[in-house]
Amino acid sequence: MCGIVAISAPDARRFSLDAMLDVIAHRGPDDRGSHVSDGGDAALGQNRLSIIDLSCAGHQPMWDHSRRYVISYNGETYNFAALRAELEARHGAIPWTGSSDTEVVIEGFAREGIPFLDKLNGIFALAIYDTADQVMHVLRDPLGIKPLVATEQHGGIFFCSEIKGLLTLPALQRTLRRESLAEQLAFMYVPEPHTLYHEFHKVEPGVCFTYRAGKLLARTPLFAWLNNAQPITGEAEAIEALRHAFTAAVDRQVVADVPVSLFLSGGLDSSAVADQAVRSGASIHDAYTIAFSDADRSLDAQSDDLHYAQIMADRLGIDLKVIEADSDFLSMLPDLAGFMEDGFSDPAAINTWLICAGARKQGIKVMLSGQGADEFLGGYRRYFAERALQRMPGFVRSALSATSGMLPANLPGKFNALNRRFKRFANLAAQPPRDRILGMYSWATPATIGGLFAAPLASHPGEQFQALLDGLPPGDCVDTLMAIDRQYDLLSLNLTYTDRMSMAVGVEARVPFLDFDLVRVMNAIPASLKVKGRQGKYIFKKAMEPQLPHEIIYRSKAGFGLPIRAWMDKRNDLLNRYLNRARIEAQGIFNADAIERIRGEQAAGAADHANTLLTLLTQQISLEKLGASAT
User: Which top CATH class is 229-329+340-377+496-554?
Assistant: First the structure.
């Protein structure tokens, strides 16, 4: 796992790789390397976080044995041992210099070209330069687990694992995209391929791009096999296939030459990963969870994850490391904003940083996460909400909508979260299907978001979201919503903040549920076996019944957030500093009157704008660091 840079341009040598690598050094503190082609048309660089083969044989950029191809690679190829054996069976003995997965990738490419990349199972972004043909191949894994940002300027194309690397190049233009700020206010993230700048974009996952001196020669889509499995319609067959693929996925992903630990919330997904990791025989000694005070949890109705996490830790015989969180952690936002450059403001990002930072202090370099199960196996409440509303007569939806205004914005005590969810559900009930589904993903109405800006926006949040919705085939709404979740929430939010917050402290976060072989199986299982009756993730719960306690499998769904409503009440000093009228007016992007209005409504309990205010706060901290304004 690493941070990489790559340039394809007529004169790539005039751009400083060192400056780019310096600002992403946190991604790979163990080693550094760079290469500029003899013709000056390509440059590669890497900061290395050593996970597999800790020796100098893993140094990058890495050459194949023939010295024709050179690679800069960020990630892990989990099936590298199988691919290594396959290469030797097909091509004879290979003079390996080490035991890293990167060497398997570059030697396989040297013998089989782009088709070899289609065999990879892992998390990765890579650039391979061919010195003979003078072309550069660039690929990001098909699920977008690992990041790669690009910009095309001055006749060349520039790549980096993080935006901040591109910002070091003074010749590159950057223009703030206000529509990205609006999208962040709606969703707490900027949907791919967009970034905070018009000129920068996220590289499309699963497509191998080929360049010569900055000019695009070809785009080769790969990994079609993830979606072409034979449908699995029988429940018993689905349980067996899912259990087998999940077991193999976790077993592959515990392989490392450094200590491995776990995120453990005590929910089904992280508990299943923890259970299988220990069953695999891997040297797992501990797991990490986060805890909040009773007072803070009460206002936001946070679940008591600690209780369930301890049940699993005791069952598995591992040490549970508890990270204690309190309201002072909001004050960390100015320090963390530099890693939140993608435009995300989900408070779960802070959780991830806290856990990874605590693990890194204990010498942990690899953490296994339960992310990805909800989006592929039907785990979110909105699936039930939309299915219920579709089946509800129109007059019932209208009556339900009328109750929304009668409910309080906040209800102190343990029923607060239930009140907020029902109020939101009722408010969406009478809306047309397209608007209703968009509303399920948005934390503020289009009118509220538009009013927060000093000048009209060129487009409104959700337009590309609606384009995806229009392009999906008719069918069960669960399939539709899972497709949206995978394209937006998973790709642009959950995987993004997990990568940035873990790599900020030099920790590799692995996601076994997104193992390609497991994804192929999950894609083959129909929605009717994922959401069945009142059970989300039905088929996975049935698969885990022989292995996990009933109270873990069937506990209520819990999010991975922070008690931000409670914390905002205590940290008005941050809001006063970053959202004061003089500052907002001088910046010229937002409407100071509108911001003061929602702050007043939040303070009075007249409306719940907690997520909007957190996003505004995060944006202002980031914009200050970037020196951005309306001009």
Answer: alpha beta
| Digit-coded pLDDT (tens) for 122-160 | 999 999 999 999 999 999 999 999 999 999 999 999 999
- Check pLDDT > 90 for residue 618: yes
Q: State in words which class domain 2-222 has.
A: alpha beta
Question: How many angstroms separate the CA atoms of 329 and 309, rounded?
Answer: 22
> Alpha carbon of 472 to those of 479, 480, 522: distances in Å?
9, 7, 18
Q: Which of 2, 160, 356, 477 does the annotation list as catalytic?
A: 2
- Would you place residue 294 in the very low, low, confident or very high pLDDT band (cuts 50, 70, 90)? low
Is residue 333 within 8 A of residue 154, CB to CB? The reply is: no
List residues forming the annotated binding site for ATP: 369-370
Q: In angstroms, rounded to a whole number, what is the distance separating the alpha carbons of residues 373 and 613?
A: 29
* Residue found under tokens 């990963």: 273
Quick one: pLDDT band at residue 631, thresholds 50, 70, 90?
very low
Three-class SS state of 599: helix
- Tell me whether strands 215-221 and 200-202 are parallel, antiparallel or unpaired: unpaired
Give the residue ranges of the annotated binding site: 101, 369-370
State the Cα angle at 39 between 33 and 45, rounded to 5°.
15
Q: How far is CA 193 from the centre of its chain?
A: 13
The CA–CA distances, whole Å, from 554 to 177, 268, 269, 440 equal 43, 8, 11, 24
Of 169, 131, 146, 166, nearest to 14 by C-alpha is 169
Closest to 514 measured CA to CA, from 368, 400, 626: 368
Q: Is 477 a catalytic residue?
A: no
Q: Which residues pair with 260 in a beta bridge?
A: 366
Q: What is the 3-state secondary structure (H, E, C) of 515-571?
A: CHHHHHHHHHCCHHHCCECCECCHHHHHHHCCCCCHHHHCCCCCCCCCCHHHHHHHC
Q: What are phi and psi of 69, to 5 degrees?
A: -115, 145
DSSP class of residue 263 equals B
> Distance between CA atoms of 2 and 24, rounded to whole angstroms?
9
Q: What's the CA gap between 544 and 206, in Å, rounded?
A: 31
Place 105 in a pLDDT band, splitting at 50, 70 and 90: very high
The distance from CA 208 to its chain's CA centroid, rounded to whole angstroms, is: 21
**Exposure string (b/e) for 524-542, b if CB count within 10 Å is 16 or more?**
bbebebbbbeeebbbbbbb
Q: Where are the domains of the chain?
A: 2-222, 229-329+340-377+496-554, 564-630
Burial of residue 69, with CB atoms counted within 10 A of its CB: 0-12 exposed, 13-18 middle, 19 or more buried: buried
Q: Where do the H-state alpha helices sit in 75-147?
A: 80-91, 101-112, 114-117
149-153 vs 156-160, strand pairing mode: antiparallel
Lowest mean pLDDT among 286-300, 327-341, 389-403, 566-580: 286-300
* In contact, 501 and 349? CB cutoff 8 Å: yes
Is residue 519 exposed (0-12), middle (13-18) or buried (19+ Cβ within 10 Å)? buried
Sheet with 135-140, edge to edge strand ranges: 62-63, 69-77, 122-130, 135-140, 207-212, 215-221
Q: What is the residue-averaged pLDDT of the chain?
A: 92
Q: Compare 10 and 602 and report the one with higher pLDDT.
A: 10
pLDDT, average across residues 428-437: 86
